[in-house]
Every structure is written in structure tokens, then in C-alpha cells.
Design brief:
alpha+beta; 2 helices; 88 residues; 3 strands; 3-stranded mixed β-sheet
């Protein structure tokens, strides 16, 4: 159950980031992303912090994002919208 829930949470993060303009978000366990403004989402190993079967409680799933760009400036142009989308 924990593994499935973690994958679903990563999919939700990828979907949320994917709404940012011209940024492509990928699950790290998926295909190799193309070059360009890309954000890769990695699930942290281990179990989520919380009860998965109780819809009335919060579950905290940790993840890492890596922003990819062909130059340092492109990486920052990818990073800033990703952070804004995640902190909404």
C-alpha cells in the first residue's frame, strides 16, 4: 500500500508541476526526459509519514525535484516556476 500511495503522490506532483508554462515534468522512474526546461520528480525512499487508509488524516510524502536546463540560467528559469507551483 505504501509503495502504491507514494507512486500516486509522485504522479500528483508531476501533474501539478506540469501546469507551469513550457516546463515538462517527469517521474524519475519513467522514460528519459528530453532536453529543455524539464523537472524530474524523485520519490524519497521509505514509508510515507501518516496513515494511508484514513482519509481524515494528512499524509506527508517527501520527494525531490531536479530542474534541468542547458545553461545555469535555463535551470533557474525552470526552478522558479516549479517552486511557485509547489508552494501554492
Amino acid at each position: 500500500m505504501a509503495l502504491l500511495a507514494t507512486r500516486l503522490m509522485v504522479a500528483a506532483v508531476v501533474t501539478r508541476i506540469g501546469g507551469a508554462s513550457n516546463i515538462t515534468a517527469y517521474n524519475a522512474q519513467g522514460p528519459t526526459p528530453p532536453a529543455g526546461m524539464t523537472c524530474i520528480v524523485y520519490a524519497s525512499p521509505g514509508d510515507p509519514d501518516g496513515v494511508l487508509g484514513d482519509p481524515d488524516r494528512n499524509v506527508s510524502v517527501q520527494f525531490q525535484t531536479t530542474c534541468v536546463g542547458t545553461t545555469p540560467n535555463r535551470r533557474m528559469l525552470t526552478h522558479d516556476p516549479v517552486v511557485a507551483r509547489l508552494n501554492r
